[in-house]
Amino acid sequence: MQMKPDQTQHSVIHARITGTGSYLPGAPVSNDDLRTRGIDTSDEWIVERTGIRARHLASEGVTSSDLALEACRRALEAAGRLADEVDLIVYATSTPDFIFPSSAAILQRKLGIRNGGAAFDVQAVCTGFIYGLTVAEKFIRSGSHKCALVVGAEVFSRILNWEDRGTCVLFGDGAGAVVLEASEQPGILASSLHADGSYSDILSVPGQISQGLVTGSPFLQMDGKAVFKFAVKVLAETAGEVLEAAGMNTLDIDWLIPHQANIRILQATAKKLELSEDKVIVSVDRHGNTSAASVPLALDMAVRDGRIKPGHTLLLEGVGGGFTWGAVLLKF
Ligand code: ACO
Questions:
Q1: In angstroms, how far is CA 187 from the centroid of its own chain?
Q2: Which atom of ligand 1 is nearest to the CA of 203?
Q3: Which residues in the chain are classed under CATH 3.40.47.10?
Q4: Residues near ligand 1 with C-beta < 6 Å?
Q5: Which residues contact 185 (CB under 8 A, 6 or more apart)?
Q6: What pTM value is reported for the model?
Q7: What is the mean pLDDT of the chain?
Q8: Average pLDDT over every residue of 274-286
Q9: Does residue 4 carry a pLDDT above 90?
Q10: Residue 243 alpha carbon to ligand 1 centre in Å
Q11: Regarding the domain delimited by 189-331, which CATH topology (the fold level of the hierarchy) does it fall under?
Q12: What is 5-184's CATH number?
């Protein structure tokens, strides 16, 4: 019998998450702690509008790659892999250690990998991990790489204006990582990435370094109401895109893991998707908005507390500065 060529010569390579890890620096800093530090705010205001109860702030001198290192060690341990087996590092951050080298290269060194594979940073702000996961998936599915670390790690506390109570209470520091491996079993089922630079002004850090000086502002600025409207709209749209691409619908989702910016964005997105709030993983209350780290942090927490189990269908979503947004649908 004559077989079709793709049945005899090539089996399809899938990209599957085989381990997760996360790390939050230091003790939680509560909303009341912020008041004690002189910020004119209240626990009631922050909880009611954002759902945030605490965040973690890295000590002076602790960098994004320090947090990434801990998250990656935990992800590698969960996957049963050694650092030397990693042939690709995709590192999402808006708060890199330096202008260069990349935080990915620094992380590679800290992991003790010599003469490793590719390592590079991805800059898509709060959508960074979704971008990174999608890029790594394409490397793995092409057959060029077999074992990737995809990490989102941020020290957002460094780019906050602590005089601006409208933004400084919203963000925190942290890292989350996954090991993504070539597999015969389906893992990532569909992904979708978008950007629209015409919305860059509603969330930005519009500073530059030139001739040793910062020009513009090195602090985060945001039009909160505009961000809210935009985020809910695109998170619902991009969820629809990946579900359609995989021939699935909302009922097939075991867990929705959206970017952890604000509880009200999460609730509004679930409502738009007609998805029960019980199926939404929420961790923003514990660590605030950690930008590119937020999705892998929420993922790892729910894996470790036993809610997410092998075989579950997960919808991961991000939205952030740029504006950027996207989603990844996967079998865990
Ligand atoms: N504590 C107490 N009062 C505050 C604080 C604070 N931390 N911050 C602002 N206020 C006051 C303001 O001064 C203002 O007072 P006034 O009426 O006397 O002038 C009042 O609260 C309302 O201020 P607004 O900025 O209009 O507050 P709003 O109701 O829009 O809530 C928020 C702000 C929570 C940021 C809201 O716009 C929102 O949820 N936006 C979504 C965007 C978001 O979550 N961004 C996160 C990052 S973006 C991302 O990750 C994609």
A1: 18
A2: 48
A3: 5-184, 189-331
A4: 41-42, 45-46, 49-50, 126, 165-166, 169-170, 203, 222, 224-225, 227-228, 231, 259, 261-262, 264, 289, 319-320
A5: 14, 16, 331
A6: 0.95
A7: 95
A8: 96
A9: no
A10: 32
A11: Peroxisomal Thiolase; Chain A, domain 1 (3.40.47)
A12: 3.40.47.10
